[in-house]
Amino acid sequence: MSAVIKVSLFAFYDTMNGAMKKEIEASQELEKFPPLTRKLLVSRGIATLPEAEKFLHPDWDRDSFDPFLIFNMEKAVDRILLAIKNDEKIVLYTDYDCDGIPAGVILHDFFKKIGYKNFENYIPHRHDEGYGVNIPAVEKFAERGATLMITADLGITDTDSVARAQELGIDVIVTDHHLAQEGKVPLAYAVIDSKQAEDTYPDPMLCGAGVAFKLVQALIKRGHFPQIADGWEKWLLDMAGLSTIADMVPLKNENRLFAHYGLKVLRKSRRKGLNLLLQKNKINKEHLSEDDIGFMIAPRINAASRMDHPLRAFELLSTNDDARAEELADWLNHLNDQRKGLTASMIKDAKGRLRARELFEVIVIGHPEWEPGILGLAANNLVEEFKRPVFVWGRDTDGKIKGSCRSDGTVSLVELMGLTREGVFLQFGGHAEAGGFTVSSEEIHTLEKELSDAYRAMEKIVKAKTVAVDGELSLDDVTWDTYKEIEAFAPFGMANPKPIFSFMNAEIAAIKKFGKAKEHLELEFRNSHGGRIPAIGFFVGEKNFPEVLLGRGEKVNLIATLEKSVFRNYPELRLRIVDIL
Questions:
Q1: Burial readout 146-168 (b: 16 or more C-beta within 10 A, e: otherwise)
Q2: Which site in 2, 39, 170, 476 is 20 to 30 Å from 97, CA atoms measured?
Q3: Same domain, yes or no, for 260 and 123?
């Protein structure tokens, strides 16, 4: 870890001339901003005053796009309004993760708000049904008289299931944000997915809940709903924002609006289950951040499908019953604790086996007893450890081998799986960076070779070997004024990372470990006025920094971000350790 950041630090200095040139070119338009703000704007490719104002001061009315700019939106809205008029049975079929579940809540809340009763939310069971629209479920919907199915966060790869639904008299409106397989778009009544070639929507990177929100926005704009007050749909931004942050889509363009306003609405949330979940995890709602979503809320929402049934999480976010909200908040916390224990055991087993054998370009590892719902978490960890694409599998309750995969960034996983010979995968889908798959018992034995052969044949993305720091600060720069400048760039996430700074030759004033197992590290520094500057590293210790001495009086080069802690409602400015050189 230290060596990587060490290269990053030198890479930063090596590229300073180019960065300075960009800053000089942009300085005339951005000269109204302080130097640090100007530097951070330029590093994000923002060089004009209008771009800077849009980024630093998001405005919903100015910056959001007309939902009817999305290809097929007009057709989809007309069909849904007709179904509402004729009281047709509508099925809302959504994915089981922290994008699909909030998307389902958005659609649910809309239909409840307009007083429409002839609809149901359906979320497939991760283990029993798997990812996507499945034909047995579709056939049950037809038996119950459904004539319209709206998907969210899935459907773009489900050509056979969508065809079956249409055959049974169920019109399907697919809303999704994933890539179609080899350009095969389902023959649905309408497909809303801005990654289609025909789509010219200004932001093709919305998450599934973001697309669902745009559909509701369009329905309200076109329909006549006296129950809905002007601007009511903005209350749904809590779910769109939650998913935008949790699903790791780029926080640029309209996604920045969803994240920014989503957090504002979440801080005022009227959702009983969500409020209890925050309360039970000691999260101050007024100071809710993207980190709280990523590390506390999303894992618990996802735990429902990984360990039980996703409807538990859906119900938590949509219920108005106090007792049920309390029960579900406790249950999701329990499931998340179980999930953490199982994941740790799986990762330990996988690493032990991988270190004992030869590694190929692509890793495939699994065990029939591994829980399919947590394979993606293990794959994430293994990619970080072994620096190559990883496919992790387990056996589902129906005997099928199912798995999750994660990319190291050098190739698109969807493209990689698509390049294997026909018949290797029974089913696959996902993003460039993450995906899911089903494979036969026969093919699993040669899957690693098949994928490694395909990997060698692909054109690789050249990965940057460095993570550039944004600049050098002194300990005297660790002030609330500096933090205020940085905070203007939040929420942070994909395509808008937290700014990272170097603090050179900083002297350690004190060192301590904390946590139940003393697994966390706190270093204390002093500025030139004697003021205390704490630096926190969670789940790190001296072993993480083997090239430096950590002790009182030692001088180190610290790589860190600035953050505000509100532990026990006491605001404290501190550094979060990225590395120590």
A1: bbbbbbbbbbbbbbebbbbbbee
A2: 170
A3: yes
Residue 351 lies in a domain: no
- pLDDT at site 130: 80
pLDDT on residue 543: 74
Query: Are 253 and 381 found together in one domain?
Result: no
- pLDDT computed for residue 28 by the predictor: 81
Q: What pLDDT digit, counting tens, does each position of 532-573 carry? A: 999 999 888 777 787 788 889 999 999 999 999 887 778 899
Query: Are the CB atoms for 249 and 294 separated by under 8 Å?
Result: no
Q: How many domains does the chain have?
A: 4
pLDDT of residue 26: 59
The CA dihedral of 474, 477, 483, 485, to the nearest 10 degrees, is: -100
Place of tokens 């293990």: 378
Residue closest to 29 by CA, chosen among 56, 57, 50, 54: 50
Cα–Cα distance measured from residue 258 to residue 253, given in angstroms and rounded to the nearest whole number: 9
Q: Looking only at Cα atoms, what is the longest distance across the chain?
A: 77
Report which residue type is found at 344: A
Question: Are 190 and 222 within one domain?
Answer: yes
Residues with Cβ within 8 Å of 9's Cβ and at least 6 positions away in sequence, in order, are 469, 502, 557, 559, 581
* Residue that terminates a domain, selected from 238, 266, 294: 266
Check whether residue 118 and residue 244 sit in a common domain. yes
Of 344, 367, 393, the last residue of a domain is 344
pLDDT-flagged residues of the chain (< 50): 1-18, 20-21, 24, 465
Q: What is the pLDDT of residue 3?
A: 33
Tokens in use for 478? 């660790």
Contact 379, 363 (CB under 8 A): no
| Residue 329 lies inside a defined structural domain of this protein | yes
The pLDDT value recorded for residue 450 is 95
What's this model's pTM, rounded to 2 decimal places?
A: 0.86
| pLDDT at residue 106, as a whole number | 98
- 3-class DSSP state of 275: helix
Look up the CATH number of the domain holding residue 171. 3.90.1640.30
Residues 363, 340 within the same domain = no
Residue 491 lies in a domain: yes
Question: In the β-sheet with 190-192, what is the strand arrangement from edge to edge?
Answer: 119-122, 89-94, 146-152, 171-175, 190-192
CA 199 – CA 70 distance, rounded (Å): 6
Look up tokens 């979503």; give the residue: 293
Q: Which residues of 103-126 are buried (b: 16+ CB within 10 A; e: fewer)?
A: bbbbbbbbbebbeeeebebbbbbb
Other Cβ atoms within 10 Å of 182 Cβ, number:
9
Question: Looking at the DSSP assignment, which residues form a beta bridge with residue 563?
Answer: 574
Query: Is 350 within a domain?
Result: no
